[in-house]
Write a structure and sequence with these properties.
1228 residues, alpha+beta, Rna Polymerase Beta Subunit, Chain: C,domain 2, Dna-directed Rna Polymerase Ii 140kd Polypeptide, Chain: B, domain 3, 6 domains, seven-stranded mixed β-sheet, 29 helices, 28% helix, globular
């Protein structure tokens, strides 16, 4: 079966050998998914879950008044349609947002004065407008005040509990001081730490420290319970020979006893003093039947009592729990007939007496004292009462309104402390604090490990939705206070919810977040790659994050858990290095905010195609093989030992132990790094520069995809939104430079019209003043599939990312012009506009209403020659297409001038002869010095109610014509489709009724349909009920679609004619866009993809440039010394492979010329089939037209893909060179 090649996409020969099991997730999913989950625009069946915006409302409402007699409850919310679409917002400097309407319910209670019982008196429900909520565009950006912005995701430390030590830096002895910190999502931080004397202290919100036992006492534990919780008890019993204690073998392993160990029962010496006990020997003593050993009375001294020692008869306390035993105390206890003394199992080797020592230091005896102490720390200077102290302590950690661990924090805490609380328990519990202290003391005793705070299991991502959720909560809490006051002061019986709500604080919080937050950034729109990278950026800076001055080396460094999650290469140079990162290509963010990466499952040694996404915590349990491990045809490992990763270490692992395998070699790196061919041959520092400099590439006048790519080019162009993708399968109905109309052929949804209109952007200014211009790739009548690229955008070529150009490069010194990385260029590059780009500048003029009178935009400017105004129209605004230079007038404007005081004579003359022309001065908008170009667009904005000038009217007429054309085209395609379906239903049937002149019972054929106007076809009636039902449904759908089209058209026209919302005092505003063509010149920066950057030193005449053996002059001369010291050998491999691609292109071009001469396509087809053999495209099946299209596409050079870590090797490059008829060594 022959298939054709339409030539609308780049064909790349791939050198990759590793099959990719899953498609790469959409590259801007991080942004889109997060914001969708926050807004939940469409209300699902059964209501929304408690996430996102719903959760915010639920956490703040219900709001009760101070006397608890009324309550304002949240019911639901919904969004109205946005007033303007994204394009209109960009043009009018507005925010793309939808009005948020919230249904609130006010319940008024009646309280019985005698019994205090409450009964519902009144319930009022009302929809309240709560301000506008910015919406995300389809490209994952926000339009705020007319400019596109991106909300960068933030990396922050996950809520939960963390254990760490000071690395010996605090104390001069280098002693490790352990500390634990409970970090909530919102609320007070709790630190528990050791000091240099091994006493445990607690700090709340980094205030003055208090002994941790005071905190435990405030939680309701007394001294005895504290000791009982953290220590085992050993009972010492009085016997004739002294005292005896149980023998525990573990306590004696590796110990050298100072006295003989004597069996209490037999009196035998089981081990002599001074000899070290091995683990085996200690165990053997127990096995030989020794249960207890004798102690002398002096061995009791220094032990600590486990319980209070009190007389059962009198209740007299002789000693308290925690007291140290000495000679006097032991005698006192023996005198009072205490023959069993319970002591703490403390040996100061394995178990330290840290908490007992803390108890000794603690001055607070009771719970009340502890609560008062905490109150004084938190609120110094205020006199505490037991009620206020208790309320304050409870509000710190146990009140869900003030303290929130979040689901993540609870999950992390459960994992670390081995608890099993539900993740809905978002406040601290008593046992949480008790367990934190236990784990901290265990660490001091040498049990367990401290946490690694740079592990990605302990850092999480806050994306746009979550950041917005936090900000909106702040706004609602600001509102809450005002609502409470109004509820208390207003006559609550007559008030509606609308009267209680002032939504300004909530709207202001949103505006503040998008306008001035550190994470809301002006989008980097230089080229499609810079857009995508900006949306995938992860920043450790921002509110609640780090500051670049305080961030240490560890936070910035690459960590083993970054593998497949964060790119180890792409990060800025300079003070932000390591603090701003990029998400890896396959990475996703899970519901808890942890970054996950995909792995293939390995079951019983067989690699499956099942893919599982794992976070850093989950991955640590498994052995993970690399994507490039050698695999047999039946998907098993060839080698017995496989390189694998396990909990941060890389080792050779037996293949039976492998659990998972990477899905792709490029899952380790980011999008920008994956665009560098032969990345594996570059030094990491240069790769970093290469990936950063690709983002600085300016879109060129003529885009050209690279010969040597990596296969990622098409993915970036598609996901960035630069290239236009067909939404539905269909046929191209109309094409011009500004729009593409597609008639959908497979329409399942009857309610939709079968028409898609794609308006192309023509010479629009980007945020960085580069030019956004889209060019159609399709022709009328062509069939397109859903997902096909139908138009190229800036820096794209046939749907592939095209950041630069393919030029002929020589590595050689040349008269010192390429000293220190300078670049020498051929004049051909400048002459043929190879590196020419277009930049668009925006100039704005505003006419205000001043105190002296209104400013006027006019052609009538004082003291300006007619020559200076040659390009202005009658309204004083420049024509589109005019060439302008420095100081040229773009828009004429005059401003009233303050008049000088008049003498009495002047006043008399003024009164007799009338008003003289008031003085005006010229305040026209002129081109600034040094700028020049062509005017490409003019926009005029008028205040509502101000009469429009001729220019504004003509722009409006043009816009309306454009809208009418869209409507008419859509209408004509709709008519065509509907009437074709109607004719199909009726054709060949006998009608029982019809339009005037139709003979009843005649079979309906073409001539009858042609003789009647289409609008009358609906009058035909047939006996078949089914057909009539279908006709009825089709007619109502057709009428509905027509009305919808008309409504949309009228709505758009109304918006155009309505007048614009301008700032106060502004009558009129004119924006002029001037495009400048910039040719490359000396002093410009140029760079390759391998961090090989330089500055153009000179542009030489072609005849002075070095040339090849066949006389071809080179385009660029680079310094060969730029390669060895920088170790970016990838550029040499790239030039060799590029040389082979170019040679192959020449070879195919010659064969194409031979075909045109002789008409024999077989050699060309064979050559192309052989070239693309083994790839996804079956070139051998192409028809002749497809082969010729493909040959024409590759005649300048064959495009190839060499994926990172899985690309062409030296042998492949040699083979390609030889295939192109060149030297295998690459020497020319």
């Amino acid at each position: 079966m022959s298939v054709t090649f339409n030539g609308r996409r780049k064909m790349r020969k791939s050198f990759g050998s590793i099959r990719e099991v899953i498609d790469m997730p959409n590259l801007i999913d991080v942004q889109k998914t997060s914001y969708e989950q926050f807004l939940i625009m469409d209300k699902p069946e059964g209501g929304r879950e408690d996430t996102g915006l719903q959760a915010v409302f639920k956490s703040v409402f219900p709001i009760k008044d101070f006397s608890d007699t009324s309550s304002l409850e949240f019911v639901e919310y919904e969004f109205s349609k946005p007033k303007f679409d994204t394009e209109e917002c960009r043009q009018r400097d507005m925010t793309f947002a939808a009005p948020l309407k919230v249904v609130l319910r006010l319940i008024v209670f009646e309280v019985d004065e005698d019994t205090g019982a409450r009964s519902v008196k009144d319930i009022k429900e009302q929809e309240v407008y709560m301000g506008d909520m910015p919406l995300m565009t389809r490209d994952g950006t926000f339009v705020i005040n007319g400019t596109e912005r991106v909300i960068v995701s933030q990396m922050h430390r996950s809520p939960g509990v963390f254990f760490d030590h000071d690395k010996g830096k605090t104390h001069s002895s280098g002693k490790l001081l352990f500390a634990a910190r409970i970090i909530p999502y919102r609320g007070s931080w709790l630190d528990i730490e050791f000091d240099a004397k091994d006493v445990v202290f607690a700090r709340i919100d980094r205030r003055r420290k208090i002994p941790v036992t005071s905190l435990l006492k405030a939680l309701g534990l007394n001294a005895e319970e504290i000791l009982d919780t953290y220590y085992d008890t050993v009972e010492l019993k009085k016997v004739k020979q002294g005292w005896k204690q149980p023998y525990v073998a573990d306590n004696y392993k590796g110990v050298k006893p100072l006295k003989d160990l004597v069996d209490a029962k037999t009196g035998d010496v089981v081990h002599e003093a001074g000899k070290k006990l091995s683990a085996r020997a200690a165990q053997k003593i127990a096995e030989n039947g020794t249960k207890e050993i004798l102690l002398g009375v002096e061995d009791l001294y220094g032990s600590y009592l486990a319980h209070d020692m009190m007389s059962m008869e009198t209740g007299e306390v002789y000693a308290e729990a925690g007291d140290e035993l000495d000679e006097a105390l032991v005698e006192k206890l023996v005198e009072n007939e205490f023959n069993v003394i319970p002591v703490l199992d403390v040996d100061d080797i394995k178990v330290g007496a840290y908490l007992r020592n803390t108890l000794a230091v603690d001055k607070n005896e009771s719970r009340e004292d502890a609560l008062f102490d905490i109150y004084r720390v938190m609120r110094p200077g205020e006199p505490p009462t037991i009620e206020t102290a208790e309320a304050m302590f409870n509000s710190l950690f146990f009140d869900s309104e003030r303290y929130d661990l979040s689901a993540v924090g609870r999950v992390k805490m459960n994992m670390r402390l081995d608890l099993d609380a539900e993740d809905t328990v978002r406040v601290l519990r008593r046992e949480d604090i008790v367990e934190v202290v236990r784990t901290l003391v265990d660490l001091r005793n040498g049990i367990g490990e401290i946490d690694d705070i740079d592990n990605l299991g302990n850092r999480r991502v806050r994306s746009v939705g979550e950041l917005m959720q936090n900000q909106y909560r702040v706004g609602l809490l600001r509102m809450e206070r005002a609502i409470k006051e109004r509820m208390s002061s207003a006559e609550i019986d007559t008030v509606m919810p609308q009267d209680l709500i002032n939504a300004k604080p909530a709207a202001a919080a949103v505006r503040e977040f998008f306008g001035s937050s550190q994470l809301s950034q002006f989008m980097d729109q230089t080229n499609p790659l810079s857009e995508i990278t900006h949306k995938r950026r992860l920043s450790a800076l921002g509110p609640g994050g780090l500051t670049r001055e305080r961030a240490g080396f560890e936070v910035r460094d690459v960590h083993t858990t970054h593998y497949g999650r964060i790119c180890p290469i792409e990060t800025p140079e300079g003070p932000n290095i390591g603090l701003i990162n990029s998400l890896a290509t396959f990475a996703k963010v899970n519901k808890y905010g942890f970054i996950e990466t995909p792995y293939r499952k390995v079951v019983d040694g067989k690699i499956t195609d099942d893919v599982v996404y794992l976070s850093a915590i989950e991955e640590a349990k498994f052995h993970v093989a690399q994507a490039n491990a050698h695999i047999s045809k039946d998907n098993t490992f060839i080698n017995d030992l496989v390189t694998a990763r396990h909990s941060g270490n890389v080792s050779l692992t037996p293949r039976e132990m492998i659990d998972l395998m990477d899905v792709s070699p490029k899952q380790v790196i980011s999008v920008a790094a994956s665009l560098i061919p032969f990345l594996e041959n570059d030094d990491a520092n240069r790769a970093l520069m290469g990936s950063n400099m690709q983002r600085q590439a300016v879109p060129l006048l003529q885009s050209e995809a690279p010969f040597v790519g990596t296969g990622m080019e098409a993915v970036v162009a598609r996901d960035s939104g630069a290239a236009i993708v067909a939404k539905r399968t269909g046929v191209i109905d109309q094409v011009d430079a500004t729009r593409i109309v597609i008639r959908a052929t497979q329409e399942s949804d009857a309610s939709k019209t079968g028409v898609d209109i794609y308006n192309l952007m023509k010479f629009q200014r980007s945020n960085q003043s580069t030019c956004i211009n889209q060019r159609p790739l399709v022709v009328v009548g062509e069939h397109v599939e859903a997902g096909d690229i139908i138009a190229d955008g800036p820096s794209t070529d046939l749907g592939d990312l095209a950041l630069g150009r393919n030029v002929l490069v020589a590595f050689m010194p040349w008269n010192g012009y390429n000293y220190e990385d300078s670049i020498l260029l051929s004049e051909r590059i400048a002459r043929d506009d190879v590196f020419t780009s277009i930049h668009i500048d925006e100039y704005e003029v505003i006419a205000r209403d001043t105190k002296l009178g209104p400013e006027d935009i006019t052609r009538d400017i004082p003291n300006v020659s007619e020559e200076a105004m040659r390009n202005l129209d009658e309204a004083g605004i420049i024509h589109i297409g005019a060439q302008v230079g420095p100081a040229d007038i773009l828009v004429g404007k005059i401003t009233p001038k303050g008049e000088s005081p008049m003498t009495p004579e002047e006043k008399l003359l003024r009164a007799i002869f009338g008003e003289k022309a008031s003085d005006v001065r010229d305040t026209s908008l002129r081109v600034p010095p040094g700028d020049s170009g062509t005017v490409v667009e003019v926009r005029v904005f008028n205040r509502h109610g101000i009469e429009k000038d001729e220019r504004a009217m003509s722009i409006e007429r043009e816009e309306i014509e454009h809208l009418a054309k869209d409507r008419d085209d859509e209408q004509s395609i709709l008519d065509r489709n509907v009437y074709a379906r109607l004719k199909e239903m009726l054709f060949g049937k006998k009608a029982t009724a019809g339009p005037k002149g139709y003979v009843k019972g005649t079979k309906l054929n073409d001539s009858i349909f042609e003789s009647n106007p289409r609008s009358k076809w609906w009058q035909f009636a047939v006996d078949d009920d089914k057909t009539m039902g279908e006709m009825e449904a089709l007619h109502s759908q057709y009428e509905e679609s027509r009305k919808l089209l008309e409504r949309r058209f009228i709505d758009k026209v109304d918006k155009l004619q309505r007048g614009d919302e301008l700032p106060p005092g502004v009558m009129k505003m004119v924006k002029v866009f001037v495009a400048t063509k910039r040719k490359i010149q000396s002093g410009d920066k140029m760079a390759g993809r391998h961090g090989n950057k330089g500055v153009v030193s000179r542009i030489m005449p072609i005849e002075d440039m070095p040339y090849l053996a066949d006389g071809t002059h080179v385009d660029v001369v680079l310094n060969p010394l730029g390669v060895p010291s920088r170790m970016n050998v990838g550029q040499i491999l790239e030039t060799h492979l590029g040389w082979a691609c170019s040679g192959m292109g020449r070879k195919i071009d010659d064969m194409l010329a031979a075909y045109h001469r002789k008409g024999d396509i077989a050699p060309l087809k064979n050559e192309l089939s052989e070239l693309y053999a083994g790839g996804e495209d079956k070139v051998a099946d192409y028809d002749d037209d497809g082969i010729i299209r493909l040959a024409e596409q590759v005649s300048k050079g064959v495009s190839i893909a060499t994926p990172v870590f899985d690309g062409a090797v030296e042998a492949d490059i040699e083979e390609m060179l030889e295939k192109a008829g060149l030297e295998g060594s690459g020497q020319s």
